[in-house]
Design a protein that fits this description.
The protein is of the alpha/beta class. Helices cover about 50% and strands about 10% of the residues. It has four domains: about 170 residues, P-loop containing nucleotide triphosphate hydrolases (Rossmann fold, 3-Layer(aba) Sandwich); about 60 residues, Helicase, Ruva Protein, domain 3, CATH 1.10.8; about 120 residues, Up-down Bundle (Zinc Finger, Delta Prime, domain 3), CATH 1.20.272; about 170 residues, DnaA, N-terminal domain (GMP Synthetase, Chain A, domain 3, 2-Layer Sandwich). Strands 2-3-4-1-5 form a five-stranded parallel sheet, covered by helices on one side. A three-stranded mixed sheet has the order 6-7-8. It is elongated, with a radius of gyration of 38 Å.
């Protein structure tokens, strides 16, 4: 008797033998037992997950002479003919080679004839998505109202290519990838029946290579048996399949954690010498990092579908690692993976990637750098009592001028946020003598609303506010950096009856400062020890009203650039 390959020899003959697809097999069995069988089914899903096998089982059971609990008896004439592939009532059609409209016209003519032996004439069309659009349309009417003795079963791996008009006329079943442990159990059972000696690590390696496909896994097992005969070793499988051993990923990870870039390069060179694909290695290393993070996050390796030995290795390694570091490494690897398929020199890209990972501790997070910059500048001296007992300030109404638009001035684009200026908190006014005299002149007139006015009912003066405006910005900076930045560019117009009049030129500043009015008033009270309200006017800001000058902005920019170890161009 000629040899029969494993995938055919151990093909399921009952619905219970189809592993990993219970949501489909139970539904079909119930439909048969309750006599609620449909006229057309679409089986979709990855290759090797049981679509064609389930279609044949369904064809057998609907024509079986003695069905048992929704399963075929596999003993009657009809069952034997279908199993041997010689039944006239079950026609398996390859959709790739019968995809044209002429083939569908022939099929429409054939469905008129009744079955020769069984109750149904079953058409199983594999690779159904390869049928042309015109052929799909020609099948619509027959598919919607077929003869009572016709059953259509379509199998496809690309359901999205099937027309929606076809899908709406069929019952759809989605086949899933087979879980790793279930594949291992199936292979172990087959090996036992074949008298093959194989360990769990080898079975795991075959199941992983099969990638959730029963047929692929069985084909690999067939190949391994041909090479090793009755005693299959882990090393022989590595040599046959070209699979990278799991220990290499642990070794590479330890090299990266120890900043041993030269050792990582040696591992890459060694894999190239043995003919391994570097792109596949990077892909598998990302899976290794994902598994390691999952063990770290869950505190147990039971979440992984792997052997007990590898579970222990993952658990021991995860205990000594930082979850944040694993996430960073995983993100870096995944960002580089798309580039590998487009590169003409994969080796350089892979080496660069692992050199970068080996120096991960030298890469600094942006939040860390910003925090270091902020800590390098003096903070306002505010007592804890003042911070915790600051009274609430009643929100002042904001005046919004109607039908007005800010005037663009040349000075607006030249100012940037001086929040990081190291001169904050020195108590020195930012205006020069000419500006001070100019404000004094404006103060004496007092006739124009935009001119600064002295509020006689309060101890604080307009000049005090201008002189200490930078302290107000320092107070707001830790709470609302964006608001502090906007306050650097406002104009301080006047102080009237305990209300500070501020001028802004754009709608964004007007709205943002208005929304944060309570915080600004709170900081004004902290700095000046007196309750002050604010009022915002949207209009052109005169140069004399600005407190923060261009010279200070340049100094702040220099400090930021120097903190990042750059240079000012």
């Amino acid at each position: 008797m000629s040899h029969q390959v494993i995938s055919l020899k151990y093909r399921p003959q009952r619905f219970e033998d189809v592993i990993g697809q219970e949501h489909i097999t139970i539904t079909l069995k119930n439909a048969i037992e309750k006599n609620r069988l449909g006229h057309a089914y679409i089986f979709s899903g990855p290759r090797g997950t049981g679509k064609t096998t389930t279609a044949r089982l369904l064809a057998k059971v609907v024509n079986c002479e003695n069905p048992q609990d929704g399963n075929p008896c596999n003993e009657c004439t009809s069952c034997r003919e279908i199993t041997e592939g010689r039944s006239l009532d079950v026609l398996e059609i390859d959709g790739a080679s019968n995809r044209g409209i002429d083939s569908i016209r022939d099929l429409r003519e054939q469905v008129k004839y009744p079955p020769t032996r069984g109750k149904y004439k079953v058409y199983i069309i594999d690779e159904f998505h390869q049928i042309t659009k015109d052929a799909f349309n020609a099948l619509l009417k027959t598919l919607e109202e077929p003869p009572k003795h016709i059953l259509f079963i379509f199998a496809t791996t690309e359901l999205h290519k099937v027309l929606p008009t076809i899908l709406s006329r069929c019952q759809r079943f989605e086949f899933k990838r087979i879980p790793l442990l279930q594949v291992m159990d199936l292979l172990k059972n087959i090996a036992k029946q074949e008298g093959i000696s194989i360990d769990d690590d080898s079975l795991l390696l075959i199941a992983k290579k099969g990638d959730g496909s029963i047929r692929d896994s069985e084909s690999i097992l067939e190949q391994v048996i041909a090479f090793s005969d009755k005693d299959i070793s882990y090393e022989s499988i590595l040599n046959i399949l070209g699979v990278i051993r799991e220990e290499v990923y642990f070794e590479m990870f330890q090299a990266l954690m120890n900043s041993q870039a030269e050792k990582a390069i040696d591992i890459i060179d060694n894999m190239l010498m043995h003919g391994y694909d570097l792109a596949e290695f990077v892909s598998m290393f990302s899976i290794f990092l994902r598994d390691l993070y999952m063990v770290k996050a869950h505190g147990s390796a039971d979440i992984l579908n792997t052997t007990e030995n590898l579970k222990k290795n993952y658990t021991d390694l995860a205990k000594t690692q930082d979850a944040h570091t694993l996430i960073r490494m995983l993100a870096i690897v995944n960002d580089e993976m798309p580039k590998l398929s487009r590169s003409s020199n994969t080796k350089i890209l892979v080496e660069t990637l692992f050199i970068k990972l080996s120096n991960l501790q030298d890469l600094r997070e942006l939040d860390e750098v910003i925090g270091q910059i902020q800590r390098s500048f003096p903070q306002p001296a505010v007592s804890q009592n003042e911070q915790t007992t600051a009274p609430k300030v009643t929100q002042a109404s904001k005046s919004r001028p109607e039908n007005t638009s800010p005037k663009s001035t040349s000075s607006q684009s030249s100012y940037k946020s001086p929040i990081l200026n190291g001169n904050y908190g020195n108590g020195k006014p930012s205006t020069d003598n000419s500006q001070s005299s100019e404000h004094s002149q404006e103060k004496t007139t007092g006739s124009e609303p935009d001119q600064p006015t002295q509020d006689g009912g309060h101890a604080i003066s307009f000049e005090d506010i201008r002189s200490n405006w930078e302290k107000v910005i320092e107070c707001i900076q830790p709470k609302k950096p964006a608001v502090a930045s906007l306050l650097c560019n406002v104009g301080i117009s006047s102080l009237r009856n305990g209300t500070l009049i501020l001028a802004v030129e754009d709608e964004y500043s007007f709205n943002t400062i208005g929304r944060n009015e309570k915080i600004i008033c709170s900081c004004l009270e902290i700095v000046f020890k007196e309750k002050l309200l604010i009022k915002i006017d949207k209009k052109e800001v005169a140069e004399s009203q600005r407190v923060i000058k261009k010279q200070k902005i340049d100094e702040a920019a220099k400090k930021v650039i120097q903190s990042f170890e750059g240079e000012l161009l």
